[in-house]
Design brief:
The complex is a heterodimer of chains A (115) and B (114). With 115 residues, chain A is mostly beta strands. In chain A, 0% of the residues lie in helices and 52% in strands. Chain B is mainly β and 114 residues long. Classes of the chains: A mainly beta (115), B mainly beta (114).
Chain lengths: 115, 114
């Protein structure tokens, strides 16, 4: 079985400070990992993915994520937060060996960036 | 390039009725997936279609069904609506339907069952 955990319901950060949104995963095979962002009354927007290779993945809007196999983590980061980054963030995983096509999402983390 | 289009954006239905939601994927995308989003259960996978064939189905009752047409457009149907079916229904498409492909989501259809 595959699963994703986002341990924080909410993350608060001041504008200009670095931000981290945490994600851990559990899969039987190789993980395919994704981060999405959702703004109010909108669908999910794809930010970045990890399939294989370099553990540091860069994505849209200045976001990046670090894959750590030993800690089974895939934390989302940004060096300098913007107020406009305030949104709901979802981590998702597919098991590259055992699962079908479904994306398994975490519960989401609400990011609030204050001026 | 136009994104994923879902219609209608909002629906209000009564218990026992049925509803059909529509999704037009990004041009050229052959895979369409459907997800249900609720505050309590989060994002849950309903089903995925590729070239008009259902490849995967989530753990939902048979009241939930879908189909994909030859132009990749998709519909999902919910029969005998229950209050618990109130949710945001999200459609997503991808180009090749491969596991490494990210999904591109529409803005969803907000279904309210009264």
């Amino acid at each position: 079985a595959q699963s994703v955990a986002q341990p924080e319901d909410q993350v608060n950060v001041a504008e200009g400070n670095p931000l981290t949104v945490k994600c851990t995963y559990s899969v039987s095979g190789n993980p395919y990992l994704f981060w999405y962002v959702q703004y109010p009354n909108r669908g999910l927007q794809f930010l970045l993915k990890y399939i294989t290779g370099d553990n540091l993945v860069k994505g849209s809007y200045g976001f990046e994520a670090e894959f750590n196999k030993s800690q089974t983590s895939f934390h989302l980061k940004k060096p300098s937060a913007l107020v406009s980054d305030s949104a709901l963030y979802f981590c998702a995983v597919r098991d590259g060996v055992n699962s079908g096509y479904a994306l398994n999402f975490g519960k989401g983390t609400s990011l609030l960036v204050t001026p | 390039k136009a994104g994923v289009t879902q219609t209608p954006r909002y629906l209000i239905k009564t218990r026992g009725q049925q509803v059909t939601l529509s999704c037009s994927p990004i041009s050229g995308h052959r895979s369409v997936s459907w997800y249900q989003q609720t505050p309590g259960q989060g994002l849950q996978f309903l089903f995925e279609y590729f070239s008009e064939t259902q490849r995967n189905k989530g753990n939902f009752p048979g009241r939930f069904s879908g189909r994909q047409f030859s132009n990749s457009r998709s519909e999902m149907n919910v029969s005998t609506l229950e209050l618990g079916d109130s949710a945001l229904y999200l459609c997503a498409s991808s180009f090749s339907g491969a596991q490494i492909d990210p999904l591109h989501f529409g803005n969803g259809t907000r279904l309210t069952v009264t």
